[in-house]
Design brief:
ribonucleoprotein, about 55% helix, about 300 residues, mainly alpha, extended, Non-ribosomal Peptide Synthetase Peptidyl Carrier Protein, Chain A, ribosomal protein
């Protein structure tokens, strides 16, 4: 712990302002601020006596040795190493990052560009983000099935074109030209429907269901069949189509919801349970309207 001299204690006591009870508040604040400013304005730190004594005798020798060392190190360096190889890069050749283009001095096949075409634009903020962007490039998956991008006008034109190639007579063709999609197909031969659906399948790559073909009265119905979305398949049908999944003996797929009655019937206990429920006068398939009408009975018996 450093000692505080008597002179230092006296100076610190003199630097501390004495506040009396008769001094107002504003004056006290001014005096305290002035005392703090005087305390901050200190003199520069002086070295110890031993350091000053050494500097008197050894200062000149150290300065001379430092100058000689700096001069020898400067002469040993190659002036070509101090020159930047790229603008803004003050690095030696061995520390330059990989992937940078070589200078004309290093590459003999270097050709100076005279036009800005097909040159890389560097220096912009976007280029800088691309250089230091570590995020993986996302590549989306392409759709397996192509979406139907036909408009109603295009679909109608394809239906009319397919009807013209379906083998109509001259009178029917003139009527088709006049009526368009309102052309009635009720009294047309059966071969016309088959040829029409075949032409539509080739033109639109879509299968026209047989129920729509039989219910159609005009060509407008075929246009609606092309534009309407196909009915989604049930999950059970997709699972049944998977041969690898259905090869598992521990897996069974049903087309409808399975109830405890189905499970008991599969084991062979349902007849006994049903007989006991009837003998005791208890409902077999539940209560309410469904049991009275026999809906549940037919549902489970199916």
């Amino acid at each position: 712990m450093s000692r505080i001299s008597t002179f230092g204690r006296a100076v610190s006591q003199l630097a501390t302002p004495s506040t009396s009870s008769s001094t107002c508040r504003s004056c006290q604040l001014r005096i305290s601020a002035a005392s703090q400013q005087r305390q901050l304005q200190t003199s520069a730190a002086r070295p110890a006596f031993v350091d000053r004594f050494k500097s008197v005798f050894r200062g000149k020798k150290e300065e001379e040795s430092t100058d000689v060392t700096t001069a020898s190190a400067t002469e040993a360096l190659d002036p070509s190493d101090r020159q930047p190889e790229f603008p803004g890069w003050y690095l030696p050749k061995e520390n330059i990052p990989e992937g940078w283009a070589k200078t004309p001095q290093d590459d003999s096949a270097y050709v100076v560009a005279t036009e800005g075409k097909d040159l890389e634009h560097v220096g912009s903020e976007k280029w800088l983000e691309l250089q230091f962007d570590d995020k993986p490039n996302y590549k989306g998956w392409s759709k397996v099935k192509k979406a139907n991008g036909l408009s109603p006008r295009d679909a109608g034109a394809r239906v009319i074109e397919a009807a013209k190639k379906a083998g109509l007579g001259e009178a029917r063709l003139q009527q088709l030209e006049q009526e368009g999609l309102a052309f009635e197909v009720n009294d047309v031969q059966t071969n016309f429907f088959l040829q029409l659906t075949k032409n539509l399948r080739t033109a639109t790559n879509m299968q026209i269901p047989d129920i729509i073909m039989h219910r159609a009265t005009t060509l407008k119905d075929f246009q609606q069949a092309i534009l309407s979305k196909p009915k989604p398949k049930k999950l059970s049908k997709d699972l049944l189509a998977n041969s690898e999944l259905m090869a598992n003996p521990n897996l069974q797929v049903r087309g409808r919801r399975q109830t405890p009655i189905h499970k008991e019937r599969a084991v062979g206990r349902w007849k006994v349970i049903e007989e006991e429920l009837v003998n005791r006068g208890l409902p077999v398939f539940g209560h309410g309207i469904k049991a009275d009408r026999g809906i549940s009975r037919d549902d489970h018996a199916a």
